[in-house]
């Protein structure tokens, strides 16, 4: 396994090809990377100054569309676009809704809230609507569920989503897993199984693997335990008309329009980021200098910045010199694929090393009709996987020309997903169809199409990066804090202060990173608005003109003046200290008590107390 801080590679200058020079390099062409690029162009950066590097041949990351061939019962064959990544979203994700509007995309409500969902947990199959989720629960279970929701809500109030490590209970909450908390708080077996099933459906891992502190922030992002469990929903589930990938298409079109056709580089995998040395390095030995410095010289870069190294789709190495870099990829991917010179902070390394994703294997089953709606069902399922690998199901409508197909998207998560992914695909298909038959009846077997997506389809990113116990309280502050002297910024949903793990989080983190970079590129002074929990030195970024001769002289004069003032102040403080110490020593040598001193000082008024006492002692 490669480490984050690899030793600096040396290469002869003559072998380096001239590097392209840009203002900002963005690693990752998912929602976050594209939003960051759009924001930077909107701030006034010119075409050619911002480049998005995406390692896949398609954009979108965890938002992904696949086109599959389906043979209909009529004998006709159709090509169907399927959203195989994130299929829909909760309308309370304001940033996403606003972005969709800006891109002139329509929003449509999914059928998920328009019928009952099937809850197959604890050997009981219940069909409940969002409004009557408690249907089928006995009194003790209903009470237990309400109490759990209230307890989590109370925790959500004391834990700050953007800086959970600062909460008064941070250390304790980070020392126990979500499972441990549930063991302590939940009383009925049914509710324990229900909440565990919801956790596995939402995060693709067991509650035993997630720190309670992180769990609270994830619940905050979802808007409460009720929202996670699909009940008490205050906002409907929505999707973009034409599929979630339309938002990626819209963003990519805008970025390419403003930034030119080279603004997005497909199949470009970034493997290394190296901080450039300042102009001072020009005096070094020119036969063996670091690759980054060599590139900077070849590109004629005199200021500071970073060199971005990687491989393109044909396996050819590429290098680009940028003033700033924004990494908009999941921490697990970064840790596995990228190295940094100098190494990123120890806290950031630890955060990336211990971040993990759950396991998700998706199977999409296509039907010509939404037959489940005839029974008043939405197509949604939550299951504890007692009788099969499917943890949850969501319905989706796929339109292709005149043809409208209905899909049941089956998520096989955590251990059950892992076990089923080892099976032969025809056996897995049989298991999935058997479960659908149990929930939706015989018609579930009349599928017209079946698509099997492995976890690697999302680049191993799962749904979201998660943290086990003992990470967030200690290293959480490094989540979005820049590295490499402010040259390296973090975006991606995992770096977000709000809605972490969700689409809104990806947008939020991208906007924050792009805003910071745009500000320093403009040369604005932003040193006074450091976000909560950040050290000022991380926030006080270098300005682009830093490193020029005039700026350096100015800095030296200011520094010298500071040192002189400091010296004078310490001299003054030392003289006061000297006087006080001598007085105290005289006082001590006279060996008088507090009371005697008080009497003497009252008698002599503002005169010299010591002289007065000495005079008395002499008498
Ligand atoms: C099945 C599924 C269902 C989901 N359901 C929901 C939902 O209902 N609601 C919701 O809000 N969210 C949901 N999500 C989560 C949501 O999709 C993500 O939060 C969001 O898409 C993350 O976007 P991102 O840009 O931060 O990261 P990503 O989408 O992971 O994008 C990162 C990109 O960086 C690229 N990359 C990584 N490393 C490199 C490298 N070294 N060089 C170049 N490129 C690199 C990757 O290929 C990828 O394209 C779901 C996710 C999945 C997978």
Largest sheet entry: 8 strands, mixed
> What is the CATH homologous superfamily assignment of the domain at 10-62 and 244-344 and 483-522?
FAD/NAD(P)-binding domain
Helix content: 25-40%
| Mean pLDDT value | 83
* Coarse morphology: globular
The hetero molecules present are: flavin-adenine dinucleotide
The helix/strand class is alpha/beta
Distance between the termini: 85 Å
CATH architectural designation of the domain at 10-62 and 244-344 and 483-522: 3-Layer(bba) Sandwich
| CATH fold node name of the domain at 10-62 and 244-344 and 483-522 | FAD/NAD(P)-binding domain
Strand content: 15-25%
- Uncertain runs are 1-16, 279-289, 525-533, 539-548
Can you tell me about this structure?
Its EC number is 1.4.3.-. One of its GO terms (molecular function) is monoamine oxidase activity. It comes from Pinguiococcus pyrenoidosus. This protein is an alpha/beta fold. Among the domains are: 10-62 and 244-344 and 483-522, 3-Layer(bba) Sandwich (FAD/NAD(P)-binding domain); 549-618, no CATH class. Helices cover 38% and strands 21% of the residues. The longest helix is centred in the C-terminal third of the chain and has 41 residues, at 549-589. Mean pLDDT is 83; it is low at 1-16, 279-289, 525-533 and 539-548. Residues 27-33, 53-56, 61-63, 85-86, 88-89, 269-270, 328-330, 333, 337-338, 360, 362, 458-459, 461, 463, 492-493, 501-503, 506 line the site of flavin-adenine dinucleotide. Flavin-adenine dinucleotide (FAD) binds at residues 27-33, 53-56, 61-63, 85-86, 88-89, 269-270, 328-330, 333, 337-338, 360, 362, 458-459, 461, 463, 492-493, 501-503, 506.
